[in-house]
Design brief:
Number of domains: 1
């Protein structure tokens, strides 16, 4: 039962994450999909921490779930607090991008483990390739997206901040 929920949440996270990346940034839809993605990813990681099928103790996927939670937090906290100063958007963009790359790499590693069993070739190699491609995409695309926001005035009440309380 827990394994089925974990898989369903992982598929939801993968889908929502892809939708976030395909949306224009900073708008209402981006924020809604981002919140749904973050919530689903938290549940994926919590369920991963609770799954112990092969052994009675923690394994590599448990460690990666903690890394994923840390990466997600590093992307969410700056956006929620609008801190540090002018660099919160950059931290948000990079860490949220890495949270998705990590999710894809973990998913491929999990499928590799289920299909071929644990081992470097079916698990580690595809994950490393995904991380390398992710790094190229992130470091090529994120600066362009951020430069678009740099040309706009970022102020309270603007598209990146949302409505401010009276």
């Amino acid at each position: 039962m827990l394994g089925t929920a974990h898989i369903a949440l992982a598929v939801a996270s993968l889908t929502l994450g892809a939708m976030v990346f395909l949306q224009p940034k900073g708008g209402r839809r981006h924020r809604l999909l981002g919140r749904l993605y973050a919530g689903a990813l938290v549940l994926v990681n919590v369920s991963a921490l609770l799954v112990y099928e092969e052994s009675s103790g923690p394994g590599p996927f448990h460690v990666l779930a903690l890394v994923s939670l840390a990466t997600l937090s590093a992307g969410l906290v700056p956006a929620l607090l609008r801190r540090p100063g002018g660099s919160w958007l950059e931290a948000h963009a990079y860490f949220m991008s890495w949270s998705y790359v990590g999710l894809v790499a973990a998913g491929v590693a999990q499928v590799g483990t289920m299909v071929a069993g644990p081992g470097a070739l079916p698990v580690v190699l595809p994950s490393v390739l995904i991380v390398l491609v992710g790094a190229l995409l992130i470091h090529g695309r994120v600066p362009r997206v951020l430069s678009g926001f740099a040309r706009k005035e970022v102020r309270p009440g603007g598209p990146l901040y949302g409505p401010q309380p009276p």
